[in-house]
Amino acid sequence: MELINVARPTVAVAWYIMFAAMALHQHPQCGERLLAAEAHYLDYFVEEVRRFYPFFPVVAARTRREFESKGYRFPKGERVLLDLYGTNHDPRLWDEPHTFMPERFRQWKRSPFSFIPQGGGEYLDGHRCPGEWITVELMKVAVVFLSTSVRYSVPQQDLRMSLSRIPALLSSRFLIGNVQI
Ligand code: HEM
Predict the structure, then answer these.
(1) Could you report the per-residue pLDDT of 149-165, keeping only the tens digit for each?
(2) Which of 81, 96, 111, 143 could bridge to 58 as Cys pair (CB 3.0-4.6 Å)?
(3) Given the CA of residue 10, which atom of ligand 1 is nearest to it?
(4) Whole-number mean pLDDT of the chain?
(5) Which residues have CB under 6 Å of ligand 1?
(6) What is the CATH number of the domain that holds 63?
């Protein structure tokens, strides 16, 4: 069981690094801004990767007591789902949610309820992922490496993504070739 708890987050972070590589491929102008070390751009880029690409679509729970929220009544013992992907793409919270736009995070007013790639609320008093900051730091190291320390080509491949797979995955994963360090 403990081994799974080590393996699971390690694999999960690798997934986001794959999406970051995909974002660098699809948005080469982001790579240029990273190369220029534009202030805070690395932070914005990593956050946008976590917002934009699908990972866990939902988290599930069961209500402990009956309550009402925003006009909905939740009976005790009901199975409920929190839509992580939907919240991160909700047009009431995000302008042009289906556009990859790291600089949106410059304006972003931090809220633990609108940006929830790794669960909602605060991790200190809820179940939001406590590994979020480690994830972000590992992604930053990987993005700096991919954009400044290594050259590679991206061969023709199937980069479609199925949202019905959990976690979502690119059909061909993300293959790179001619790697030069
Ligand atoms: C891509 C990286 C990761 C993703 C997408 C992810 C996602 C999640 C999600 C969705 C939850 C459930 C939140 C909820 O129930 O509201 C969770 C919980 C958790 N995560 Fe992560 N996680 C990642 C990386 C990590 C890392 C690196 C660690 C540890 C170093 C970690 C440790 C945990 C733990 C211990 C919980 C359970 C928290 C609790 O139930 O109180 N995760 N994670």
Answers:
(1) 999 999 999 999 888 88
(2) 81
(3) 27
(4) 93
(5) 9, 12-13, 15-16, 55-56, 59, 118-119, 127-131, 134-135
(6) 1.10.630.10
